[in-house]
């Protein structure tokens, strides 16, 4: 018999205390856990190199800083979509408990996920889902996947030549605050509900900022903020209410885990000395290059010929993929086309594996397509992504970032990127996915760091 999951938490419950490197103490008081998911399944804690916000909830299901099974991330997004149906539309999906069991145990995950994708929910009116870059681009897409009568786009930090964003807004606490949404007028006009999807809401200021910006140009009545975690204080929640009154709108919050946090301590200014644990004579992987442009027969969604400009003014004319939703947006009708592409590419790449554990590594905002491809590459596959987020590395049990490397982005050498939590020799093969081709010289800083991981093979996979 399938276990029924209900919340076991009370607002009066004693807080959970997380001590971060003997410098920060974060008390977490859970107020809502509708599916009874254990906290240590959802996240670990780490210290950020950021004075604005010195701590980080490191998600264990997002597929960003910590490697996960790709279906774990996809099911996490699906469960958030189910929660949206319950909270906003009053629906009680019959397969909720199956999704929770598959998410927590990994058993029967592929079957449960395929059943979800084959029977999407019908929304009563067309709804626009917007994922936040960079961490929630795949999360937003996997929530959107659950629905018919839906559109999807995600925000970005990309700079596009001769293309004006539909809206601009600030992510105030971030290491890179400026964000844009390139949705066109047709996508944003009208009174359709907007669902903003993020991995974590701490104060809610980013959601307030995008709602303000969006409403100034394209007013509507209903907004939803969906997140895996929601830590807003009573004062933060009051900010939503004030915005509702001022703009004449409704804002509904949807989350898998809600609570309040109290932080004591100071930001960690200097990173402790850290050494990567590896042999004195580490093996050097063979570097392979795979261009997926030769498999154009699997593409049913055209590429987007926008020209990007990096911080040095250098231009990249290689097309962006039309399957990410970053610029033109996606509709529910595109779901089967994307699945057709990712399933075929996944099976092709599976043939290149040497049989051991493998990691599929997305890059920056380019998360969802690599995640979906990884889901079709067989057993013993993990997925995660590179990130802009600078985090203190400490090899200690229970700490969220135990290893990590920095490198200059292949798209912009002025932007520092990172990948975390890859232990030496953990993977036989590492597949790094790039949305667009780039000059080999630009790849070298990344490849030099990947060579230190003890993998036998590193595959650079270029989608376009």
Chain-wise SSE layout:
Elements: E1 16-20, E2 24-32, H1 39-42, E3 43-47, E4 55-59, H2 70-89, H3 96-105, H4 109-118, E5 121-131, H5 137-144, E6 147-154, E7 167-170, E8 178-181, H6 185-188, E9 194-201, H7 205-217, E10 222-230, H8 234-247, E11 250-265, E12 286-291, E13 308-309, E14 315-316, E15 330-331, H9 335-350, E16 358-362, H10 368-375, E17 381-385, E18 404-408, E19 416-420, E20 429-434, H11 440-450, E21 457-462
Parallel strand pairs: 5-6, 5-9, 9-10, 10-11, 12-21, 16-17, 16-20, 20-21
Antiparallel strand pairs: 1-2, 2-11, 3-4, 6-15, 7-8, 13-14, 18-19
Helix pairs in contact: 2-3, 2-4, 2-5, 2-10, 7-8, 9-10
Structure description:
The protein has 464 residues and is α/β, with parallel strands linked by helices. It has two domains: 16-265, Rossmann fold, CATH 3.40.50; 286-315 and 332-462, Rossmann fold (3-Layer(aba) Sandwich). It is 25% helix and 28% strand. The chain contains eleven helices and 21 strands. The chain has helices at 39-42, 70-89, 96-105, 109-118, 137-144, 185-188, 205-217, 234-247, 335-350, 368-375, 440-450, and strands at 16-20, 24-32, 43-47, 55-59, 121-131, 147-154, 167-170, 178-181, 194-201, 222-230, 250-265, 286-291, 308-309, 315-316, 330-331, 358-362, 381-385, 404-408, 416-420, 429-434, 457-462. The protein has an eight-stranded mixed beta sheet with strand order 1-2-11-10-9-5-6-15, sandwiched between helices. A five-stranded parallel beta sheet has the order 12-21-20-16-17, with helices on one face. Strands 3-4 form a two-stranded antiparallel sheet. Helix 5 (137-144) links the parallel strand 5 (121-131) and strand 6. Helix 9 (335-350) packs across helix 10 (368-375). The longest helix has 20 residues, at 70-89. The termini are far apart.
């Amino acid at each position: 018999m399938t276990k029924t999951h209900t919340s076991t938490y009370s607002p009066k419950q004693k807080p959970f205390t997380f001590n971060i490197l003997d410098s920060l103490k974060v008390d977490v008081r859970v107020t809502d856990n509708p599916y009874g998911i254990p906290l240590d399944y959802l996240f670990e804690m780490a210290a950020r190199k950021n004075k604005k916000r010195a701590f980080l909830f490191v998600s264990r299901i997002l597929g960003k800083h910590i490697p996960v099974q790709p279906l774990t991330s996809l099911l996490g997004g699906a469960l958030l979509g189910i929660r949206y149906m319950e909270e906003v539309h009053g629906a009680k999906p019959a397969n909720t408990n199956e999704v929770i069991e598959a998410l927590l145990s990994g058993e029967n995950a592929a079957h449960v996920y395929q059943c979800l994708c084959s029977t999407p929910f019908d929304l009563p009116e067309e709804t626009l889902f917007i994922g936040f870059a960079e961490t929630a681009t795949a999360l937003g897409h996997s929530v959107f996947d659950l629905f018919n009568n839906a559109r999807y786009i995600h925000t970005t930090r990309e700079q596009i030549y001769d293309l004006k964003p539909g809206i601009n807004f600030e992510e105030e606490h971030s290491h890179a605050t400026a964000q844009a949404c390139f949705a066109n007028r047709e996508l944003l006009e009208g009174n359709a509900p907007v669902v903003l999807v993020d991995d974590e809401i701490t104060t809610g200021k980013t959601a307030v900022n995008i709602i303000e910006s969006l409403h100034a140009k394209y007013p509507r009545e209903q907004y939803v903020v969906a997140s895996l975690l929601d830590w807003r204080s009573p004062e933060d929640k009051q900010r939503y209410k004030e915005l509702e009154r001022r703009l004449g709108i409704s804002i509904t919050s949807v989350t898998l885990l809600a609570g309040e946090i109290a932080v004591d301590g100071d930001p960690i200014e200097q990173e402790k000395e850290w050494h990567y644990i590896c042999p004195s004579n580490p093996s050097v992987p063979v570097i392979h290059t795979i261009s997926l442009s030769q498999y154009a027969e699997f593409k049913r969604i055209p590429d987007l010929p926008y020209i990007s400009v990096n911080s040095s003014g250098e231009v990249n004319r290689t097309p962006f993929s039309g399957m990410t939703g970053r610029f033109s947006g996606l509709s529910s009708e595109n779901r089967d086309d994307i699945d057709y592409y990712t399933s075929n590419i996944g099976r092709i790449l599976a043939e290149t594996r040497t049989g051991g554990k493998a990691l599929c590594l997305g890059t920056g905002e380019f998360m969802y397509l690599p995640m979906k491809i990884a889901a079709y590459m067989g057993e013993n596959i993990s997925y995660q992504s590179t990130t802009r987020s600078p985090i203190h590395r400490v090899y200690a049990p229970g700490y969220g970032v135990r290893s990590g490397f920095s490198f200059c982005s292949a798209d912009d050498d002025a932007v520092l990127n990172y990948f975390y939590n890859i232990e030496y020799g953990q993977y036989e093969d590492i597949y790094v996915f790039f949305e667009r081709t780039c000059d080999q010289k630009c790849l070298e800083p990344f490849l030099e760091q990947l060579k230190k991981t003890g993998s036998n093979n590193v595959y650079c996979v270029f989608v376009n």
